Amino acid sequence: MPEPVPFIFVCCQFGAEKTCKQELLTRYPGLRFAFSRPGFMTFKVTDPGIRHGSFQLESTFARVWGWSLGKANSDSPKELAESVAERISAVVSSKPFTMLHCWQRDTALPGKNGFEPGVSPVAKVAGQILFDTLLARLPDLRLNGTCKPGERTLCVVLVEQNEWWVGWHDASTTALCWPGGAPPIELPQKAASRAWLKIHEAILWGRVPIQKNDVVAEIGSAPGGAAQYLLERGTTVIAIDPAEMDATVAEHPSLVHVRRRARDVPKRDLMNVRWLVIDINMPPSYTIEVVRDYVQTRGLPVRGIIATLKLPDWKLAAEVDNYRQQFIEMGFSFVDTRQLAFNRQEFCLVALRKRRHRRRSD
Questions:
Q1: Is the Cβ–Cβ distance between 220 and 281 less than 8 Å?
Q2: pLDDT-derived band of residue 96, with 50, 70 and 90 as boundaries?
Q3: HSE toward the beta carbon, residue 76, CA cutoff 13 A
Q4: Residue 300 burial (CB < 10 Å; 0-12/13-18/19+)?
Q5: How many CA atoms lie within 13 A of 42 on its CB side?
């Protein structure tokens, strides 16, 4: 019998499907679009060189991906769980699953009406039913935890209430270690803004080695969510923004608020800066020019950059490779991009002077 034609599944941000689809079809001509719902897609593999064991999907806008085993339909969660168990038997024979990730596709834009990506209450219930069903045949299985690097993971995506899609992957990247590609973090009640989530995820995903007592310059800091998180890590933050900071953040003894535009800050005020964080409501070309001014024209010895690049028009997503190249030309040997789970119509770029400086994966 010939080997079945493989399919891959992809989850992305609600509303980013067209951008993600175009990116993947451009980068991988051996994929053919197959199925789509908001935040979820599948692709048929037509290139025999795309096979598990050697292929790794590289994408800015695919939050998580894996090998698809098809879908299960039923109005009964128990029947859905039994169907999942039947579908995984062929994969289990080669290497058993030790982690089960069960999540819903995104139902709204992150931050809209209180929605944030992660394991929803519905997915928690479904995951427990699945776990109870599978545990007898997979005694080492764990549920919705953070994977160890390379751990074989069963993925179940709740695309509709009565439609679960089944797949799997080996957790080969940091993001694939998280259920649905979203880190298990929550916005604190006293957070100044959602930027707290974005910088937290960026540091985890990018394995950025910001240490206690490091000096971080943050451009576009108001009202202070990212600065708040960085201060919690024990850094000193130079917050550069003409607007007011949240009172709680502004009062922190390790925060220096420079109420100027980025290009009006004297170089002498920035000589001890080792990390640059920038999140301004401007197109990527403007943001990159601000960074260039700091690291080339002013010659600041920064070790790395975390930049949020806004996409006022989704068409700008086609320029991601060009944006990366501009950071490489500025002297950064490691540059990576990802639309974070907690991003909106934007994506994160992490640039480090030396690849070897990345923090080890946990």
A1: yes
A2: confident
A3: 5
A4: middle
A5: 17
Question: Which residues is 35 bridged to in the sheet?
Answer: 42
Instruction: Tell me the two tokens of residue 243.
Output: 């607007």
pLDDT digits (tens, 9 = 90+) for 330-339: 999 999 999 9
Confidence of residue 90 (pLDDT cuts 50, 70, 90): low
Q: Which of 16, 51, 50, 58 is nearest to 36 (CA)?
A: 16
Q: Within 10 Å of residue 237's Cβ, how many Cβ atoms?
A: 27
263 Cβ contact partners less than 8 Å away, ≥ 6 residues apart: 290, 293
Spatial CA neighbour of 177 closest among 147, 139, 140: 147
Cβ neighbors of 89 (< 8 A, separation 6 or more) are: none
CB 141 within 8 A of CB 85: no
Its pTM stands at 0.95
In the block, residue with structure tokens 């709680």: 248
DSSP result, 208-238: ----TT-EEEEES-TT-HHHHHHHHTT-EEE
Tell the residue number behind the tokens 């400086």, with chain if given: 357
Buried b (16+ CB within 10 A) or exposed e, 136-169: eebeebbbbbbbeeebbbbbbbbbeeeebbbbbb
CB atoms within 10 A of CB 172: 14
> What's the pLDDT tens digit per position in 230-283?
999 999 999 999 999 999 999 999 999 999 999 999 988 898 999 999 999 999
Determine how many CB atoms are found less than 10 A away from the CB of residue 54: 7
Q: How far apart are CA 149 and CA 99, in angstroms?
A: 12
CA distance 239 to 255: 7
